[in-house]
Every structure is written in C-alpha cells, then in structure tokens.
Amino acid sequence: MKNIVVAVDFSGGSIHALKYAIKIANSIGANIFMIWVDKTFESDSIYSISKENYRGEVVRRFDELIEQYRDEFTGGKLDYKLRTGKIYSEVVAFAQAKKADLIITGSHGVSGFEEYWIGSNANRIVAHAACPVITVRNMFIIKEKIKRIVMPIDNSTTTLGKLEVTLHLAKLLEAEVHIVNIYSTNLKTMHKRVDNFAQKAKRRFQKENVSCIHERFYTQNVTKVVIDYAKSIDADLISIMTEQDNNLSTGIIGPNAQQIVNHSPIPVLSFHSSNVGLTL
Fold first, then answer.
1. Quick one: pLDDT at residue 1?
2. What is d(CA 92, CA 82) in angstroms, rounded to the nearest whole number?
3. What is the CATH number of the domain that holds 264?
4. Is residue 143 in some structural domain?
5. For a Cys-Cys bond, which of 18, 37, 153, 195 suits 90, CB 3.0-4.6 Å?
C-alpha cells in the first residue's frame, strides 16, 4: 500500500478521518493525498465571496493542516489537491489518478465552513470507488495501532472478495482478524456454504501467519450482530462487501452494507465486486 486519499471538507468528521489515515500511513509508510472539491461556484451560486478568495482560504487551511500534523505524520508524503465538480466523482477520479490503494472519508459531515459535504457523499464514494474505502465516524476513538479487524462471512458469492486486501492490511498492521460466520437463513445448505467460505479464509490467514479468531452467529439482523460483536471485542475496523453485484452501474450499495456504513461507530472498510482481485 503506497497511496491513501482522504476526502477533506474541514468538518470535524473529515479531520477525524485524516487522523485515522495518519495512523495507518505511519504504520505502513504510505503517502496521504487530501482532496477538497469545490462545488459552490455554479451558475446559481448563492455565495458572494469571489472564487479566488474562497479557494485561497481552502489553501490556507490545508497548509495549516500540513503544519499541524508535520511532526505526527511519519509516513511518506502529505499533500493536497483542490478540484471542481461533482464531489463523489471527483474524489473517485482523483484516487484513480493517484493510483490510490485506499480512500478514507468521514461518514458524517456537519454544518459550519460554508457547506460540509462528507456525510451526503460517503455512500456514493463507497459505491463508485475503484479501490476499497474506509469510512470513519467522528465519535470513534483513534488508537495508536489497528489491532483487531472483524470480517463477516455470509452465503453471497462475493463474500470472499474482501479476503486478500483484508489479509494484506492485517499483515501490514500486524492486526488480528476475527472471522464471523453469519447464518441468516435456516437452510442447512446455506450454512454449509458459509462454513466452506469461512474455512477457506481461515486457511488463507493461517498460511500467511496472520492471527485469526472464528465466531458464528445465527441472525436476521446482520447489521446489529456485526456491529455489536465488533464493539464487544473493541475492534478497530470492520471489513465488508457492499452487496451491489446487480447495482454497480447505478451506484447503489446493498441495505446491510449501507446500514453498517451509516451506523457503525467503528470504521468500516468497504469493497464492491469491481474491487475483487485487488491487492494493496
């Protein structure tokens, strides 16, 4: 993993996401590229401030951020870029241009500096990004290291799509992975399917000497069980697929994935089918 893109709108949530990104980048020696997208200067803009002055203020704030975290950031390069356009598409395009291995974004924005946009665009970034995305809520207490990653396994055909990147990230961070079997139906054939997927994942982790723990849950409420389990072990990250196999072109992520991204107090690492096969 070499390049991390962080979406910044100067809300508390986006700065919190930057702090989380710094912890990851410091652990693996990655570069961080921050991006801010200007969407205020359209033909019907209500803002009276000139575009030049507005963007000048953004540049000043970025320069202050770099100075503020200069000593704390021990990874590679810390830089920023200003772009204009549709927010989620600009973030995604910038990540592709930088050949980013990961995008990190706050999952909720708040009002204040003109108009914060993180919250309303997080799901779109997750759905359209060509690389995995970590969403971070402002309430999450950032620790010095990521120690525990929760990886749910269900009966979907793409459930193991997150395996290789989760494995690689766990190795880089020296983190423990908790494989969580989710049985959401009474069909024994589906239980066997989940078991087979989980055993494949477990063998892969063991082969790479990554510590893993295996748990099983029978539930109709996938979101609650995954989040409650992650909270019970003080997890630092949840790794999920976005369940969007049939909805990729429309940028719609599945209901369980959307609920986890929107409600998990723990950062969520999201993949969709086009990410499958990626290695960081």
1. 78
2. 13
3. 3.40.50.620
4. no
5. 37
